[in-house]
């Protein structure tokens, strides 16, 4: 159990300038250009990261390919890889507080959530794939007697992983752990504003015995380092989590380079649908509030559209507004904080812009709407609710990725389904009802990768997470993630 004094002891520890991590060691960039990292906690400069250029990315990919071709990891027995992955999990747990605080200083997530969702979840992810990989078998095909058809599962080679600034360790581990378990080498590109904990993770992986070159981290600008990685001719698979706008570019880069396979985990505008027969409106209100306002709304699966049946609209909105207005927003390094900072000044500006636009377009502000704690120099915003949102409004259609909830009303199940499916996204959703048949019909009717029933959020690694429509393709988590990082090979043997 972590206490506040332990966190405070790490609050101001200087963070040295961060080099790239290539071939098992920290290394400077060829072009020696750095980027200042501003902490969203108070707007001061925390450290610098290295701006990798195409040459650095090429070095990282070459190191990954060398390691892969050497067979030191790719051809090691799965049971050997398992031992190293378990040691990585051990080290993540041993450095849990250091990793969580470093990440929070970088991106502003409240520490209570960061401890659970970042090192806590990353360690579990490494253990899950460590345990899975020596239990994945090939197949023998049901062929005629005079032939033998074997289906092997092989690592794909060099995997590029490009990840966003929210939950970098958790999302990074969702990609790194299954890719490594399957025997691949990885080149990871963290987001500009959330690189620190992933660079530290790479060091811990080496300490755990991961051979040099098997995991490399290139930091810096998406349009430079990210593009160079996505365009690289020797990357076999690109696994991405981030915005749809960048996802589109990655598909283009693949088409313009070597047709690498591209898996996209993109954004959402997830409907949280409350029927009048929900068993416990207090619970629905509480979970709905945290479903949108935790991490100040910077959660891909955030329930950012509340669809509520007319007869319970007033009472539910009032309950959620009360919870929102009472939430402790502020210092992300305080254990009592319920919603930390917005990750950057630009994201705060964008979020405030969405709020202003919602008001301009005729939505009714119920609570919040403004920047707070400006005197700290940090980037904070009140949990914000707009009622009377209609499907044509920007707030009903575009992902805000901030603490802004839009409320819409429906009369019956058909209208709930129509509204739920009325965006280009299909990531998450929730249904609140005490009617089992309604729940089952809605599970089938809502187009989304995840449907929660009478809850919101389920962090378990055993189930896949992925979207439909413009929320992406492919899945992180669960054994299904291994499909992204393995190729099937048929061996056809004449007997
Ligand atoms: P983003 O798309 O701006 O950036 C994501 C990553 O792409 C970063 O590392 C960035 O440097 C890189 N990048 C940017 N331009 C690039 C380019 N031209 N070529 C290659 N790489 C480039 O996203 P973000 O703002 O960091 O994260 C927020 C988005 O991520 C939201 O849309 C959110 O919904 C989504 N997200 C989705 C999931 C999921 O599981 N589906 C999880 C978390 C976040």
State the main characteristics.
single chain; 495 residues; alpha/beta; Aldehyde Dehydrogenase, Chain A, domain 1; Aldehyde Dehydrogenase, Chain A, domain 2; seven-stranded mixed beta sheet; five-stranded parallel beta sheet; 15 helices; 21 strands; 19% strand; binds nicotinamide-adenine-dinucleotide
Structure overview:
It comes from Microbaculum marinum. Belongs to the aldehyde dehydrogenase family. This is Aldehyde dehydrogenase. This protein has 15 helices and 21 strands. The chain is α/β, with parallel strands linked by helices. The chain folds into two domains: 4-266 and 472-494, Aldehyde Dehydrogenase, Chain A, domain 1, CATH 3.40.605; 271-460, 3-Layer(aba) Sandwich (Aldehyde Dehydrogenase, Chain A, domain 2). α3 packs antiparallel against α5 (111-133), α4 crosses α5 and α10 crosses α11. The model has no long low-confidence stretch (mean pLDDT 97). The chain binds nicotinamide-adenine-dinucleotide (NAD). Nicotinamide-adenine-dinucleotide binds at residues 162-166, 171, 189-192, 222-223, 226-227, 230, 241-243, 246, 249, 265-268, 300, 399, 401, 427, 465, 467, 472.
Give the uncertain stretches in residue-range form. Answer: none
How many individual domains? Answer: 2
CATH architecture of the largest domain: 3-Layer(aba) Sandwich
Strand neighbour order, sheet with most strands? 14-17-18-13-12-19-20
Beta-strand percent range = 15-25%
